[in-house]
Amino acid sequence: MPQRVFIQTADFDLSHEVATLRADDGGVGAVCVFVGTVRDRNAGSPVSAMELEHYPGMTEQSIEAMIDAAHQRFDIRAARVIHRIGLLQPQDQIVMVAVTSAHRGQSFEACEFLMDYLKTRAPFWKKETAADGQQRWVDAREADETALQRWGV
Amino acid sequence: MKLSIRYFASIREAIGLSQESVETSATTLGGVRDELIARGGAYGQALARGKAVRMALNQVMVDESAALSEGAEVAFFPPVTGG
Fold first, then answer.
1. Is B69 on the interface with A (CB under 8 A)?
2. DSSP one-letter code for B67
3. Model's pTM, two decimal places?
4. In chain A, which residues have their Cβ closer than 8 Å to the Cβ of B62?
5. Which of B5, B19, B80 would you mutate first to test chain A, the one with the most A CBs within 10 A?
6. CATH 3.40.1080.10, domain A25-144, yes or no
7. What is the ipTM of this complex?
8. How far apart are CA B5 and CA B2, in angstroms?
């Protein structure tokens, strides 16, 4: 099976990722891609940088399990997840979830399912640097947990 | 039994360690959390009851009732904020 989960410091190219995901699969009729990026503000305060910590090993394993769950739940053909770690700047890409399916409905849903799952269960932590140089850990949002609950997991 | 304990993000910073080996008589994850809290100081504060602390056993997220086994890898961390 091709590698499905990539945890990396390097940036990624969307066109290349989509092309790779649907290469040699003539059954694909829909590709749904979500990209998360670094905002330049959080709760009204300017953000000058963002650092991402993770739990090596568990990160890959947990996202693999999420992709397995997406395959069980939705009629999708393939999925690919990239999550960056290390130091990022505002407007940088952080995360990509790409899903292919025969028809659009399943890939739209699976993409959202994977993101909701990843936001609340994959072991990543964000630390922001404010404009004045102060650093702080980003708080988890209740809304993310609520988003996962609607899938009944 | 012997456990390997890992700490991440704000909990790692508060305790000042990312990893340690501990000998425990606890049988569950909650039990080992209690032992660590009983050390007091930064441990008591970072892992205090009522604080949002998430746990993993052998790299799978679990709750405090999870049963420990010899050589297990246990992790304590705040709610995740990736994506």
1. no
2. B
3. 0.95
4. none
5. B80
6. no
7. 0.95
8. 10
